[in-house]
Specification:
heterodimer; A: mainly beta; 7-stranded mixed β-sheet; 4-stranded antiparallel β-sheet; 11 strands; B: mainly beta; 6-stranded mixed β-sheet; 5-stranded antiparallel β-sheet; about 0% helix
Amino acid sequence: GAVVSQHPSWVICKSGTSVKIECRSLDFQATTMFWYRQFPKQSLMLMATSNEGSKATYEQGVEKDKFLINHASLTLSTLTVTSAHPEDSSFYICSARDSGYGYTFGSGTRLTVV
Amino acid sequence: QQQVKQSPQSLIVQKGGISIINCAYENTAFDYFPWYQQFPGKGPALLIAIRPDVSEKKEGRFTISFNKSAKQFSLHIMDSQPGDSATYFCAASIGAGSYQLTFGKGTKLSVIP
């Protein structure tokens, strides 16, 4: 089946630094990828939709200058959290829509900003 | 705003029992209804999904029941096992357009021996 690889699985960074999270579709081409944020014991909150070769579409309230998304190829999308602060600490998850009309999720990235 | 309402928020079931989680939606344009299972610290994994042209779909111990007129769908886990203890999310999406998934708020299932 479709596999989405997300790295790193966890990262600790200092306040003010930037962190990049990668999301790769391993065995299919993903025209569209999604980035979610999940707080403890809560549902997934869609942050942005990324389409290969075009600018990402951000959900209302999500700062596009803080959460930079790049979808340069059909198998790779990246989320960069710029100038991270403790309030950005969260669980970030990517998802890709595969050709079978399903959605496959990455394993998530636990970001802790200290 | 598109919504998917999920209940209950938490569920405790004895081993061997049936776990039932319900979801209701508002947007009649939804045409894809998946259920995801999520373990702590992991991303959601697709469990089973259904389209509105069928009323029931079964895969192993997992069954989705779909009621188009009531705009409701539910997940039934038969012979629940401790390994099924996880958070379950229902979701819905529209075939055309942005393809975004709209998630329910989740149900934390605990299966006790």
